Amino acid sequence: MSSALTAAMWGGVAGSSLVLGALLGIYKEIPNKISAFVMAFGTGVLIGAATFELLSDAIKDGGILYPSIGFLVGSTLFILVEMMISKKGGQERKRSKGNPKGHSGMAIFVGSVIDAIPESVIIGVSLLENHTISWVIVIAIFISNFPEAMSSSIGLKKDGYHKGKILFLWFVVLVLSSISSLLGFVLIDASSTILITSIGAFAAGGIFAMVSSTMLPEAFEEGGPIVGYISALGLLTSLILTYFG
Description:
Family: Belongs to the ZIP transporter (TC 2.A.5) family.
Radius of gyration: 17 Å
Low-confidence stretches: 98-103
Strand content: under 5%
Transmembrane segments: 6-27, 34-52, 64-85, 106-127, 133-154, 166-188, 194-214, 226-244
Protein name: ZIP family metal transporter
Distance between the termini: 20 Å
Largest sheet: none
Subcellular location: Cell membrane
Number of domains: 1
Organism: Halalkalibacter alkalisediminis
Shape: globular
Structural class: mainly alpha
Order of helices and strands: HHHHHHHH
Number of strands: 0
């Protein structure tokens, strides 16, 4: 299999949990505490992926200046987009509970698309930079997508969307995830150290801003203090995957 197809395949694998999460949101009732534990574990894995994979590699290859700028730009952009999405009712998209009254499920879906595309680009860039897929990043994105799709699907169902249409929307995001990973591999200039390291740090900044403002607060709210330990297990898992990967 060519490297480009490999990038597309793993982008699709990471995005497939959006469809699985949508199925759970439509057909099953998931206890909030269980979802909180999944989010807490995913938060730890994501923080580990951002630190051990993205930031450390960026600083090792590109020094401190450009990764620092990329990190700040990534976190700033995510928060600005988050503020805009929140005004439209999409701030709950990484959360696992039902869609709040007056908040649009479609707004949550749009926010999910905004998350999914750059996340998938990271997968393609990781293959381009390291000549192998970053398992930590794939697993972290896969886990974090579950509560996002569950929340949106519950909201869309309450907004009157047909189940088939909801699943179709998430299949569209799945395809976009695969294409974005492919484009991340094909279009990024592998010879530009500054560009590669800046993109990695940019993604890390967005991840830190996302888990801090969306996933971790919800996990603690629903799961209590034990989520701190579960997050630590996620971080340790990320470290182990990085070590053996």
